[in-house]
Amino acid sequence: MRHLDPLAAYAFMQQRPEAVLVDCRTEIEFLYVGHPVGAEHVAWQEAPDWEIDPGFVDNVKYLVRGNLERPVLVICRSGHRSLHAADALETAGFANVINVLEGFEGHRDENNHRGTLGGWRFRGLPWQQT
Question: Would you give the distance in Å from CA 129 to the centre of its chain?
Fold first, then answer.
């Protein structure tokens, strides 16, 4: 597994248009907090039980049309869930998995706020909100 910060991940996707960006946050986060433009939503976990979705790997396989060589970048809020989701993809045979460090919102600052220290949105990369 490779690890790229948001700027490097975005540059990678520009160079490799066949790459798929999987946002593994919850549906609420994806829709209301916002998400990278072009990201595909495949939740790793959902509220209220926070169980790992047993269909996660199969849903990503569907996105790549079964081509496990296709680059898959995985992003979450801060890079924690995406690490576990990316590991599951590698275990399932995906050959080119990239975890996006910092995630969409970044880590918490000294005031317990996100979005001030890093993340996709903080770095000024294209994003949208529903």
Answer: 16
